[in-house]
């Protein structure tokens, strides 16, 4: 039972942490979203947008930094590569802790089953040693052994529900963040002036 109790405490801690970390305002800050909607990605980003991107620690600001404030001389391909690398980092950040819930979902029913099997072994061992054991005592022993299975399932089922909900939420947030970033990147790429090739000088025409 002790490992199951520890798993339940760990699952509870992960669920609380994810509920706090995956709040929409932490991922997509309202002020930054409002500034982006007001700006609409046309022309040079205003100072207010740049300041919010630099100050914010949100995943959206982290992903927009190389787009809105690129290093001098960076080509569009280099900026796109940086955005893709940061997008992977954002995915890892949003999915943090979900693998722990997944592990708890898989291991707690097995721990419960193991506890039940060990409990049944003790019951039958006691029955073999004390042949005068009464029925109610055996029933109580079997019930106590089955409690570990119940405890394991009681931890695994809420953890599975939480894992599914958090996974769906992270996927939606990832899609929304990447859509905003790629839209801004495409607009900036289209607005960059294209270098025209210099005309090829022609030699004197043959008379």
How can the largest sheet be summarized? none
The tally of strands reads 0
Order of helices and strands: HHHHHHHH
Helix/strand-derived category reads mainly alpha
The figure for the number of domains is 1
How would you explain this protein's 3D organization?
This protein is mostly helical and 207 residues long. It has one domain (10-191). Helices cover 78% and strands 0% of the residues. It has eight helices and no strands. It has helices at residues 2-21, 24-27, 30-39, 47-55, 59-68, 76-94, 98-129, 135-191. It is rod-shaped.
Task: Throw out a few tags for this protein.
207 residues, mainly alpha, disordered C terminus
Briefly, what is this?
The chain has 207 residues and is mostly helical. It is 78% helix and 0% strand. It has helices at 2-21, 24-27, 30-39, 47-55, 59-68, 76-94, 98-129, 135-191.
List the helices and strands and how they pair.
Elements: H1 2-21, H2 24-27, H3 30-39, H4 47-55, H5 59-68, H6 76-94, H7 98-129, H8 135-191
Helix pairs in contact: 1-7, 1-8, 3-4, 4-5, 5-6, 5-8, 6-8, 7-8
